């Protein structure tokens, strides 16, 4: 595939095409990996992250599919290295991916006032934690702030309700990957959830999340399961997915 790997739009389009043609291909032989082997550039790794955030908004049910490929790429030692900087001439795919993904995720999760972007990023964040693709203190901080377990952000009103909704999506998709001080004390998280007040629209999501965490057989839900089951509970993801 010939394209200008310095053109961000061309890069993302090439990545889109690699996923469109991969319905029956196993992860180890995914076209994206072939694309990266042909063009081992930071722009390809950054483009995959841009594509992930795009899909989280346009087709959130497909988040897991792309994260599985990203996880494989992170662990695949046969992939070529990239020139990151003069001090990092042979950076691994994982090293670049994690830093770029974390930086972009931090930007989306800092402000719940942009509800569509915040909820999409929250769902993506939860599944990236659940699938062991990425986690960071900043992301965990957004969860604890939303649950009023810390006071870095002081959101109120509709913004606070959106913050809680985002935390619920992250808990549903990535509870197993949370730090031990939260994961090993589910009562702390449950008590926080039960104290919170949210909008009428977000109440079904809050109650579903509480019920899910109270279930002794709880497990991380896939992006498709989260969307389907919260919809059945009466909550609507921002784009109706």
Describe the structure in your own words.
- By secondary structure, the protein is an all-alpha fold.
- It has twelve helices and no strands.
- It has helices at residues 8-20, 31-38, 42-58, 63-75, 93-109, 115-130, 137-146, 157-174, 180-183, 186-195, 203-214, 223-232.
- The longest helix is centred in the C-terminal third of the chain and has 18 residues, at 157-174.
- The radius of gyration is 18 Å and the shape is elongated.
- The mean pLDDT is 88.
Write the layout of secondary structure elements.
Blueprint: H1 8-20, H2 31-38, H3 42-58, H4 63-75, H5 93-109, H6 115-130, H7 137-146, H8 157-174, H9 180-183, H10 186-195, H11 203-214, H12 223-232
Overall number of strands: 0
Total separate domains: 2
Strand content: under 5%
Radius of gyration: 18 Å
Secondary-structure-derived class:
mainly alpha
Mean of the pLDDT scores?
88
Percentage of residues in helical conformation: 55-70%
Unreliable segments of 5+ consecutive residues: none
| Biggest beta sheet attributes | none
Distance between the termini: 32 Å
Order of helices and strands: HHHHHHHHHHHH
- Tell the overall outline: elongated
Count of helix runs:
12
Oligomer: single chain
